[in-house]
Amino acid sequence: MRTQMPCLLFSLNKELFGIDVENVLRVINLEKLMKVPKSPDFIAGALSLEGNVIPVVDLGKKIELGATTIDKRTKVIILQVHHEDDSIDVGVLIDEVLDVVTINESKVLPPVLDKMGFNTQTLDGMYKIEEDFYMILNATKVFEKELATLV
C-alpha cells in the first residue's frame, strides 16, 4: 500500500476538493457541451475529445452539493474510473484547478459524515493543507452506480 498520493486540488461551489491523480487523464477548458436527451439530472452534457464522446457530469449535483455555475473559468477534469476489469472515461465540471500536491495518506482524516450537508459516502476523507481542509474524493465511489450498470 502506498503512503504518498499525488492529488489534484480543485474548487467547486466554494468548497475545496482533491482527487487522486491516478484517475485524472487531463484537465481541459469547458468549450461546448452537447445535450444528452433523457439523461439523469446530474449529466451536464457530453463533449468530443480526440474522437471519443465523453459524458460530462455536474459534480456538484452528483455529490448533492448543488449545481455548478458555468462561466468562462469552468474546467472539466477528464477522469478514468476503474471498476473491476472495466473503466469509464467521464468528465466532471469544476470551478478551478488549484494545485497538484502529494499528500500523506496516513494524515487523511475520516470525513465528518453527518455535518457536511452533502453525500460524504463519495469521500476518502479530509486533508489539511495549511489552514484549509480539502475533501478527498474517491472517483470510484462517486460513480459507483454508473459503474455497476456496466457490469
Considering the chains and any ligands shown, give keywords for the structure.
OB fold (Dihydrolipoamide Acetyltransferase, E2P); globular; 151 residues; mainly beta; five-stranded mixed β-sheet; single chain
Strand arrangement, major sheet: 8-1-2-10-9
For the biggest sheet, the summary is: 5 strands, mixed
* Mean pLDDT across all amino acids: 89
Helix content: under 10%
The unreliable regions are none
Count of helix runs? 3
State the total count of DSSP E strands. 10
CATH architecture annotation? Beta Barrel
Strand content: over 45%
**Separation of the first and last Cα atoms:** 26 Å
**What value does the Rg take, in angstroms?**
15 Å
- What is the CATH top level name? Mainly Beta
Order of helix and strand elements from N to C terminus: EEEEEHEEEEEHH
Total domain count = 1
Kindly report the name of the CATH homologous superfamily: CheA-289, Domain 4
> Which outline best applies?
globular
- Might you state the CATH topology name? OB fold (Dihydrolipoamide Acetyltransferase, E2P)
Helix/strand/pairing category: mainly beta
Protein name: CheW-like domain-containing protein
Pfam families: CheW (PF01584)
GO biological process, one term: signal transduction
Organism: Pseudochryseolinea flava
Q: How would you summarize what this structure contains?
A:
Helix content is 10%, strand content 49%.
Could you explain how this protein is built, in words?
This is CheW-like domain-containing protein. It comes from Pseudochryseolinea flava. One of its GO terms (cellular component) is cytosol. The protein has one domain: CheA-289, Domain 4 (OB fold (Dihydrolipoamide Acetyltransferase, E2P)). The chain is built from 3 helices and 10 strands. It has helices spanning 59-62, 139-142, 144-150, and strands at residues 4-12, 15-20, 24-29, 43-49, 52-57, 75-83, 86-94, 96-104, 123-129, 132-137. The strands form 2 sheets. Strands 8-1-2-10-9 form a 5-stranded mixed beta sheet. Strands 3-6-7-5-4 form a 5-stranded mixed beta sheet. The longest helix has 7 residues, at 144-150. The protein starts with a strand and ends with a helix.
